[in-house]
From TrEMBL:
This is PLP-dependent transferase. The keyword Transferase applies. InterPro entries: Aminotransferase_I/II_large (IPR004839), Class-I_PLP-dep_aminotransf (IPR050859), PyrdxlP-dep_Trfase (IPR015424), PyrdxlP-dep_Trfase_major (IPR015421). GO terms for molecular function: pyridoxal phosphate binding; transaminase activity. SUPFAM superfamilies: PLP-dependent transferases (SSF53383). The keyword Transferase applies. Residues 134-452 form the Aminotransferase class I/classII large domain. Signal peptide: none annotated. GO terms for biological process: alpha-amino acid metabolic process. CDD domains: AAT_like. Belongs to the class-I pyridoxal-phosphate-dependent aminotransferase family. Its cofactor is pyridoxal 5'-phosphate.
């Protein structure tokens, strides 16, 4: 691709794809969406001396809330020797922040939290402002991935999806009548060989897919984390075939594999990997979430990627729900910017959360082996991130259909899991099952695996 913009940073030169490139990626809906006649003028209210009669904002005198304080656990101590503390810390919103949180605010998010996320992407992924990308906050990453799909795909478009794929996006693609092209994945993540084969054999009479959807860390449902080599090969294919990668990564911070082998994100890799030297950045739309590491109920997700696409997502928000919830954003910003937390405290916190789930994974796998593995009733690969085990029931109702077994025999035995068919766009039969290990204690896990093994034997007996 030619005519790239160049940005001189302290640590090197970055080339970004020109904004005109994204015209071909944006959907007809995104390109035809009119700007909000009110919200598009909001920034002008900050003009010095301006008297605004613009928006129908409620008078703050009508709000009954006068202060907001909460307590939170401090993050664990750092490796330099600061001791771990279990003491709660008190956090209060300033009068100004509370007033801003209670009022209509910027479409892309609470400014203090937006700034904090920009800094996080710098600390974690090595991405700086001024590289042709921007970010926006949403009501959870599901809100943002839904809007991204609408912004990038027209009805009937083909879309490449890692398979098995997160069940929550299948209805989104289906509602647009998109042709979901499954790219197989294994314990090392999405298969670059399968992706290459699909792209190279694509019929010349039909337009190639322009979007690849993948969950590279702790993939839902498989728990697989894509290796560095796979990521390098997929990113190279994205460049060769003019693809945009939707990197849906809610389990990035729940990695508990060997730290020495932790792969970088696609968002980081397109900027820093030596194999990408001389290549323009701008092929990754990254989604992060605080749901798994801070609180699911806060409903805070963030999307980072090429500015034209982020603007299209913001335009959708401006007409759909105006903005993400102000108060929950202000709560998160107050905690993250508190002296005890900050970015280093957040990273220590997520490390402790990952350790929690590693211990739960180990307990689950021991019970899985004890009740199903040793008798050859199931097989699996050990997840290195996330919340799920993805295992194949060897005698799934005699014909490889885990859905029939889970919905009848397992239910009758008093255990629930998700049959693998719900993670396959075409809904075909499969012997796989997804089980979440995030909540249950050791005794409940053991009993659940015992009941599931009995259900498999019941099915085999018939």
């Amino acid at each position: 691709m030619t005519n790239c913009f160049s940005f001189a940073l302290n640590y090197g030169l970055v080339e970004s794809l020109p904004e005109s490139v994204y015209t071909n990626f944006l959907s007809d809906v995104a390109k035809s969406r009119l700007p909000s006649p009110i919200r598009s003028l909001f920034p002008l209210e900050a003009t010095p001396g301006m008297i605004s009669l613009l928006a129908g904002k409620p008078n703050p005198a009508s709000f009954p809330f006068t202060s907001f304080s909460f307590t939170a656990r401090a993050p664990p101590g750092d490796p330099s020797g600061v001791p771990r503390t279990e003491e709660d810390i008190a956090v209060s919103l300033s009068n100004a922040d509370l007033a801003a949180a209670l009022q209509y605010g910027p479409t892309n998010g609470f400014p203090a939290l937006v700034d904090w996320f920009y800094q996080l992407q710098s600390v974690v992924h090595g991405r700086e402002r001024g590289e042709g990308w921007s970010l926006s906050i949403g009501n959870g990453s599901q809100d943002l991935v839904s809007k991204a799909i609408v912004a990038l795909l027209n009805p009937g478009d083909p879309v490449l999806v890692q398979s098995p794929v997160y069940a929550g996006v299948i209805p989104l693609f289906h509602s647009l009548q998109c042709k979901q092209i499954e790219v197989e994945a294994d314990a090392d993540g999405i298969s670059s060989d399968a992706l290459r084969s699909i792209l190279e054999q694509w019929p010349t009479s039909s337009p190639k897919p322009k979007i690849l959807y993948t969950i590279p860390y702790g993939g839902n449902p498989t728990g697989a984390t894509a290796s560095i080599q796979r990521r390098q090969e997929v990113l190279a294919l994205a460049r060769d075939h003019n693809l945009l990668i939707i990197e849906d990564d809610p389990y990035y911070y729940l990695y508990f594999g060997p730290s020495a082998s932790r792969p970088p994100s696609y968002f980081a890799m397109e900027r820093s990997d030596p194999s990408c030297d001389g290549q323009a950045v701008g092929r990754v739309l990254r989604l992060d979430s605080l749901s798994k590491v801070l609180s699911a109920g806060l409903r805070i997700g963030v999307v980072s990627g090429p500015s034209p696409i982020i603007r299209a997502i913001d335009a959708h928000t401006a007409t759909a729900n105006l903005q993400p919830a102000g108060l929950t954003q202000a709560v998160a910003a107050a905690l993250m910017n508190s002296p005890t937390w900050g970015h280093s405290g957040f990273l220590r916190h997520v490390d402790s959360v990952a350790s929690l789930y590693k211990a739960k994974r180990d307990v689950f796998e021991e019970a899985l082996q004890r009740h199903l593995g040793k008798d050859g009733l199931a097989e699996w690969s050990t997840p290195q991130a996330g919340l799920f085990f993805w295992f194949r029931l060897i005698a799934a109702d005699g014909d490889g259909d885990s859905a029939a077994l889970v919905r009848t025999k397992a239910f009758e035995r008093g255990v629930l899991a998700l049959p693998g068919t719900v993670f396959l766009p075409d809904g075909r039969k499969t012997g796989y099952v997804r089980a979440a290990f995030s909540l249950l204690g050791p005794e409940e896990v053991d009993e659940a695996m015992k009941r599931l093994a009995q259900a498999v034997r019941d099915a085999a007996a018939q």
